[in-house]
Amino acid sequence: MVDVNNLKQVNDIHGHLRGDEVLKIVGQALQNLTIKRKLLACRYGGDEFLVLLHSKKIQTLEKVKHELRQEIRKIAAEMQADTLPQVAIGSSQLGESLKSSIKEADQKLYADKRHLKSNSRQLDLFIDRVTGLRNANYLNNQQFIQTEKRQATVIFWDISNLQGFNKQYGYDRGNGILKKAAEAIKVEFLDELTVRYTEDKFVTITFKPGVADKVQRVCKNFNTLIKNRTVNLRVGSYQWQQKQETVIMAVDKARQAKNYLGQNRQENYIAYNHEVEEYYANKEYILTHFNIAIQRGWIKPYFQVQIRSLTGNYAGMEALARWEDPQKGIISPNVFIPILEEAHLVEFLDLYMLEQICQAIVSGEKYGLPIVPISFNLSPLDLEGGKIVNKVEKVRQKYQVDPHYIKIEILESAMTQNEADFRKAITEFQQLGYEVWLDDFGSGYSSLNNLQNYKFNMVKLDRFFLQKSETTPQAKVLITQVVSLIKQLGMHVLCEGVETEAQVEFLKQIGCERLQGYYYSKPMPYEKAWNFLKKSEFKYYESYEEGVYYDKISQIDILSDPFNENSDFDGRYPLGIVQRDAQNKLSIYLLNRRYQEVMEYYNYDNQKLEETLAKDKSLHAEVIKILTQSEHSKTAIAAHLNFHGHDFVLRAKPLAHYQSKVTYVYMLGSLENLMR
Length: 676
Description:
The chain has 676 residues and is α/β, with parallel strands linked by helices.
């Protein structure tokens, strides 16, 4: 007796057409064996077949059972069946009564069914139950693909951060993400082979052109379907050389292309090319020479200055790892850092960089140079296990460097990978006196919840955020509001990738506190960086105490009313920041856009306004009087002034003190009326 196992389940899940296909495969297999083994076989019931074998030998019976299952597998492959039938078999010696013999065989058949169930035999060898797509078993059966003569492209799809999503929302919702990914892929590759390859990865094999455009449409459609920015598709492709490579080799190269994307959140797709090939060729060299590069100083920190937008002074530097190899030349950090992360060696690099930073600070102090606050990156992998804080602290204490001079930058993606470790590290670092900066905000993972749930000292806006603002009006509005939001949440903000004067002016206008980019300097080795600062004789470098002072000033948000925390200010009034020194010299640091419009109306700019205040003794004395009075008042002081025949109201309150300097925020209320 031969029973098609779980036929009812096949019909219920996949439909009766699939069930009929299963019966056809088993029937064809039995028919083939009737010729080879001289069997008699017939369909006995819904899912059962009756077979008569002319042999009394147990060995022959077991051999026929094995041959039947092999024949079923062969026919399923030839038919490219989505379901591989599983059969249970029971047998008995034919006695005087056929009926009693069938009953005995039937009893043994059900014992075999229980045995199959206990061994957890899979009903569907080729089908993924969650998505309904074919699975890796099907893909590995190369005879379905290698008969094609056209050029094939293998596409490797990876749903990034699905594990984190499952952890937060549960596996049922995670399965929903998998189904939507399959749906998005099938829309563009309807007649092509797509399989669910592993847990969160898919493979498509296509023989049609236009792969890049189709991939981008899939990614866009997927994002629309799931409505969750923490999960997205990362994709690599490879043109399969079918005569020289197996399908597994082709899939591996498409996977390599996907992995080459690394932490680059601006790109979600790459085709395997010479650059990718060279990367993996270099991988072995990097891993085998990493320790030597550390020992011989081939890897060294390069320093890039950070500028205070309010004053134009140097506010600090970032240390960036550079590998200058005597054999390979310059090895890009975009090449060696992902390789070290994959090999879990990046922590050694980061601690080495910290050691180099501490040595630079100590060396500079020894030769009478000012101490420069320096930021450096910790990889998200460093945070795993919760031991990195103690390791960083051990290096710092070795050189007795004040933690205020070391700024720790952590990528936003770390929060989606190991939230508990991330939160613990932030808290411990800040308790020890380190500043923790959120790096690359706006690069792809960004979520406003991260700003709400964590208290960073500084948020660094990614360079691509700024670049988009030059071509997209909406992006300029967005970056303005993001800067305002960050400051209202009590955090400071720095923008990377500043390259043009127009970008500098825009960022100043919206109140971005610090700027970093090629407009000011490229990353430089230690000696060149310190010579760069020496040229200014350090006149334009702020000390730590000055930095604290200017941080208080820069915290003012030009889109909110500094005189009324509950008002909806939105930048519609002329707002400025002015500093008074010991000689009562007034320096205007910041004017919002509305103030600049008013000044342009009167044909004034910052410099001309400062010169007028210096020359007009009466006006200067009146302004100083109002500013002084504001220091002794719990509320903002408001007073009338006459400026070149025009009456206006000056409202002022102090922001910060440093030595003999005092800085105030002020508003010119009635000039608004004059403009109407």
